[in-house]
């Protein structure tokens, strides 16, 4: 399956992406993760992206489109993929259409995870991540077995620098202005699936699986 997962920051995209990736055996491609990795490795891309990410702004479209295009050339995407956090602007959505048509492939569905804004800030401010393996936790709703330590790899967990309340407010504004219009774009294409992102993580995943269920034949 070729899928996008969309939703405001903190909606639970990354959390659901891990489960979708396992279920459908497709790579999880998160532009945010790719930027953070580039920043960690101090590459040219990382240096370019850091200023934007630190302010809660979007990295410019041309840089982001090129990154995704190169990633989609990898062999592991032949059986499908899950794009998380891309596209985030209409220009990126147009660019993705061109990339996919060049590769002769189509999207199967766009999953939109929606949650009330009242819980978003709590989710983001309480988010902790493993800088080594990328696993995500929450200080209240998804605690690691040993406080501050990744269950999967034993590394010390961190709070993302852009997960402060101040930057989150800007990220939510950017989402409303620049990313939300994409929902209508994909709705008009008949690809949009709206999933209630409130509640238990496994229940939300079941909603996604149930909706995608009938589509599995397209793989
Ligand atoms: P996104 O990728 O959309 O920014 P994440 O998947 O990182 O969001 O989730 C944001 C935070 O909320 C994380 O700390 C995660 O553990 C937590 N979280 C995700 N889904 C749920 C849920 N259904 N209920 C409670 N907390 C959740
Ligand atoms: P979240 O799901 O919590 O919003 P991400 O990890 O997806 O966080 O993204 C973190 C940051 O990386 C964004 O705030 C933005 O600065 C940058 N970023 C990620 N994806 C894109 C994209 N498609 N276009 C532009 N900037 C992006
Ligand atoms: Zn880890």
Read across the widest sheet, the strand sequence of neighbours is: 2-3-1-4-7
Radius of gyration: 17 Å
- Envelope shape: globular
CATH topology: Rossmann fold
Bound molecules: adenosine-5'-diphosphate, zinc ion
The N- to C-terminal Cα distance equals: 5 Å
Please describe the biggest sheet, giving its number of strands, its sense, and whether it closes into a barrel. 5 strands, parallel
Structural class: alpha/beta
The CATH C-level name is: Alpha Beta
What's the name of the CATH homologous superfamily?
P-loop containing nucleotide triphosphate hydrolases
Attribute tags:
alpha/beta; five-stranded parallel β-sheet; two-stranded antiparallel ribbon; binds zinc ion; Rossmann fold; 219 residues; globular; binds adenosine-5'-diphosphate
């Amino acid at each position: 399956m070729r899928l996008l997962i969309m939703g405001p920051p903190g909606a639970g995209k990354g959390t659901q992406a891990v489960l979708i990736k396992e279920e459908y055996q497709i790579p999880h491609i998160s532009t945010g993760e790719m930027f953070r990795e580039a920043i960690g490795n101090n590459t040219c891309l990382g240096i370019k992206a850091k200023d934007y990410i630190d302010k809660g702004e979007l990295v410019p479209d041309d840089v982001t489109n090129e990154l995704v295009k190169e990633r989609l050339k990898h062999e592991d995407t032949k059986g499908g993929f899950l794009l998380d956090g891309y596209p985030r602007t209409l220009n990126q959505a147009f660019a993705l259409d061109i990339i996919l048509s060049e590769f002769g492939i189509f999207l199967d569905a766009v999953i939109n995870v929606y949650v009330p804004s009242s819980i978003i800030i709590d989710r983001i401010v309480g988010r902790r991540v493993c800088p080594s393996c990328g696993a995500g936790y929450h200080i209240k709703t998804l605690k690691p077995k040993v406080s501050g330590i990744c269950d999967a790899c034993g590394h010390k967990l961190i709070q993302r620098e852009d997960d402060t309340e101040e930057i989150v407010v800007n990220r939510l504004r950017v989402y409303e202005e620049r990313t939300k219009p994409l929902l209508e774009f994909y709705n008009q294409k008949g690809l949009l699936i709206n999933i209630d992102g409130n509640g238990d993580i496994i229940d939300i995943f079941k909603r996604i699986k149930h909706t995608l269920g009938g589509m599995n034949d397209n793989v």
